[in-house]
Amino acid sequence: MNFSFNLPTEIPSVLAVVWFLLVAVLWIGYLVLEGFDYGVAMLIPFLGKNEKEKRVLINSIGPVWDGNEVWLLTAGGAMFLAFPAWYATLFSGLYLPLFLVLVGLIIRGVSFEYRSKRPDTKWRAVFDWCAAIGSFLVPLVFGVGFANFIIGLPVVTDPNNASLYVIASDAANVGVTPYFWELFSPFGLLGGIVVVVLCLYHGLLYLTLKTRGEIQERAKGLAKILGAVAIVGGAAFLVWQNLAYSPLFLSGLSWILLVLAAVALIVSWLTIGRGLAFIMTSLTWLLVALGIFLKMLPGLGFRDVGGADVPGINVFTAASTDGTLTIALVAALIMVPIVLAYTIWAYWVFRRPISVKNIPDDALAAA
To answer: Which one of 28, 74, 284, 343 has the largest count of C-beta atoms within 10 Å of its C-beta?
Structure first.
């Protein structure tokens, strides 16, 4: 099944680049904010030794996790609005991995809502594992996906319609087999693992600020281990990326971003337990995502394998018309500040750290 989109014959103006940057900003916001609560949720079955400690972990992200998820929905909506051909090509060729993302998001969300419906220990343990597995699946798939954007997803012209592009390893593959296992190259797998480890590390740093007592101490100890793993794995991924997949015109900038990301990650490891550490991992997400999106210009993470000299789908040809982009930009300039203000307000209201002392015994049965 292929959802492809007729590419416009007129090339839009600089608005296409503006919207590409806005999409990048939304994805960066998603990775920074949702990254730490993925990490916390993955740690619930391991870091929480009893029900009170698990409640502390859940409550630490309870007020913000669903708000963080809005960034993903907004990023997807912005892609659909501003770059319908990009959106359609991705969803037609990658519907299996995107289905895994959907499954992960569903079981994760359900686990937070349903674990409190019964006081039975086994019931709650099942949903704790659902939260962990769902929170593992999503960053793993996204990590593999972004690594493949760096390599360049192969696109070919649809043999039934020359104006359509679909993801396939070659023209003979179009509409026959889904593009799935090809994603899991060594570089793709490393990208997935690095994103998962970064989420875990980011989540642990959040817990060192948001919790007190034994959970905080455990988080600090584990953060030192996973921080070292993140530094080594992240360095390997970024060096491999720059050596093998960096365009010549971006080579210098790519190495600068790599060095800055590595410095930020090392500083975060040296300052574990302080607010600076969490700021530095957030900066790492920003720098890495910025490097990936720069590499996706102008081809949106695609490479033409059908024999054409110039890829037919890129940031200009995949964009909506100027009129659509202008109206959408006005709406974005109104709504994005409102979303940012609400997000800042929510984090300010729930800024205080918590511990098992904040979980009364009589609250566990109905928690």
So the answer is: 284
